[in-house]
Amino acid sequence: MARAIILMMDSFGIGGAKDAANFNNAGANTFGHIAKFNGGLRIPNLNRLGLCEAAKGASGAYPEIGAQMEGILQYGSKYGHMSEISKDKDTVSGHWELAGLPNLKGWGHFPPEYPSFPADLIEKICNEGKIDGILGNKAASGTVIIQELGEEHIKSGKPIFYTSADSNIQIAAHEKYFGLERLYKLCEVAYKYVQPYNIGRIIARPFVGEKAGEFTRTTNRKDYAAQPFGDTLLDCLKAAGKNVIAIGAINDIFAHRGITKGIKGAGLKELWDLTLSEIKSAPEDSLIFTNFEDFDMLWGHRRDIKGYAQGLEYFDSRLTELAFCLREDDIVFITADHGNDPSYEGTDHTREQVPVLLFGKKIKSENLGQRDTFADIGQTIASYLGIAPLNYGSSLL
To answer: Which of 48, 78, 320, 348 is geometrically suited to a Cys-Cys bond with 72, CB 3.0 to 4.6 A?
Structure first.
């Protein structure tokens, strides 16, 4: 009997994507540039597990993390770097591919310039959502556009619609003056009408504050993701009677499918606390899957190198607690879904390879080298937990 644990460091790319130029991301390297511009990183456990070796394999150079103390995690570790075969660099595609369902067609996208959204689409959303119109209607940074349009939103009651380089409509509204539940219902309406456009997500972006310069987004974000177009690892595990414990954004990313226990949470500390609690108590034949979204949402998109570096060091420090929670047959994966280089131009995701670190009490150390798809993780877990093979990927064991 066994368990599998996935710690998804949302956006933690390690450079080296062969098709990066196709996404206008040549030279992007989230890990490498954070280490360089921060003047080093204290990540002894991740280093001990082979992260820097994986990064060198992907990008051709070791990241400049500086001298490290000996890591607490003294397990054997398989380490490597994975390329993505999905046609987008978004969160949903990265997660689904890891779970054995690559997005080979790609998503639809709205143009960045005003007006981004078709007039007939907005008309349908406004009519059913009972709103007098929208603000924004362009590609924008979410933290910027609420400062730009927040006061007008409060006065007019019109929500702020915007998009990004990813496949989405993001809807920002004030929790007090517009209402959180009203925002959620509006996003449900938008999700219904956006289906013909093959859009990956509608994202509710609530915020608070009274005037420009003081508006801040809250932790009550909610994603309305497209339904997976086939069975994922999560669906297959649930159908086989296994336990699938989804923590944080995993619930929304998989449209609440294939999950036997969904746990809400936000923030790096809370998500780690919830993850360790579940590892201590989850039964055998379980998958525990956590998305640590702060790396992407707070530091990657906001181009905050210092914040990202501090988050990496905090993440590493919590791995010492993990060591005391693992059972004899547990296997743990540390990986990512795409890049988001905080030193790169713009505020969007970057096309990069991602690390795969696989460890446990019975794992023997091995350099896995280049892996051709994120789906290798899903295939490994399918085999390890004793279900039928998935359609994509090769086992790492």
So the answer is: 320
